[in-house]
Design goal:
Length: 279
């Protein structure tokens, strides 16, 4: 092969290799954004959970959480991130005298006002209200109460690492008078690592403290997720297992999780509302 043709071949392979490397880096960055609950990324996770060993009947509970995340650009500095959790539940009878129950549970909706830029030290922050909607179709699947409270998030991303904590507190303010009041704190510390091959390994503790009963429920989750594309559309599939470190008597002992997430990175948040456009 002539020298000038060899040089052209080397340059062509170098350019192709650079483009492939950039594509891989972008995909890995997209996978890392999924570890950020307030990323400016439209996503629709569908999280399937199986909990085992409930009550004297050693019952199983299946919960499908449909969790759309929608970012809205409010201005040049702040995003509003709306995160909704809609649970669909199928619960076996945990004890004699308690029937099986299936249907929609209570919806929890969080509104995070999040600066578009991290702090000088690299922290990504978000805070706002969280609402509890008494949407359960069966008394056994929900609280029967309207609730509200504050929610906040702080996280940091360094290299492939993401770590931080998400928390909220819900108080009931209305609802069925014969049902227990809601007074619960949710705290979720989390840490994950995303590789250049778009694989994310994560650990979190979705801890809830019931102030009425002075009771912690602490499931420790270990998950592994992989980002991939189908027809050019990015998706992520995650599997995991959990062990209940703490919980009420008769509560679940362990569980499994599978999450399928649709991503819409090309969609841009809506522009800020102006006086002209709001007429």
């Amino acid at each position: 092969m002539k020298p000038h043709r060899l040089l052209l071949l080397v340059l062509s392979l170098s350019v192709c290799g650079t483009g492939f490397s950039q594509e891989v880096d972008q995909a890995a960055e997209l996978a890392k954004q999924l570890s950020n609950p307030v990323a400016s990324l439209i996503s629709v996770p569908m999280q399937a959970n199986w909990d085992f060993g409930i009550g004297v009947n050693d019952a199983t509970r299946f919960t499908l959480n449909v969790q759309p995340v929608i970012p809205i650009s409010l201005n040049e500095d702040v995003n509003l991130i709306i995160r909704t959790i809609m649970p669909v539940i199928d619960a076996e009878s945990p004890a004699p005298g308690i029937p099986n129950a299936s249907g929609l549970g209570d919806i929890v909706q969080s509104f995070f006002f999040s600066p578009k830029k991290p702090t000088d030290s690299g922290w990504i922050l978000g805070a706002g209200p969280v609402l509890l909607w008494p949407s359960a179709t069966d008394d056994l699947l929900g609280s029967g109460k309207w609730g509200a409270g504050p929610t906040a998030l702080a996280l940091k991303q360094v290299g492939g690492w993401t770590y931080g904590v998400l928390a909220n507190h819900l108080w009931s303010y209305a609802g069925e008078g014969d049902r227990d009041e809601v007074n619960a704190t949710f705290v979720q510390p989390f840490v994950s690592f995303t590789t250049k091959t778009k694989t994310t390994i994560g650990v979190n503790a979705e801890s809830t403290y019931d102030w009425n009963r002075s009771q912690w429920t602490v499931p420790l989750n270990l998950t592994v997720g992989q980002l991939f594309k189908v027809g050019g559309m990015p998706m992520q599939f995650t599997v995991g297992a959990r062990y209940y470190v703490e919980g009420p008597e008769g509560g679940p002992e362990w569980g499994l999780r599978a999450v399928f997430t649709l991503l819409f990175p090309a969609a841009k948040p809506a522009p800020p509302v102006t006086h002209a456009s709001s007429k």
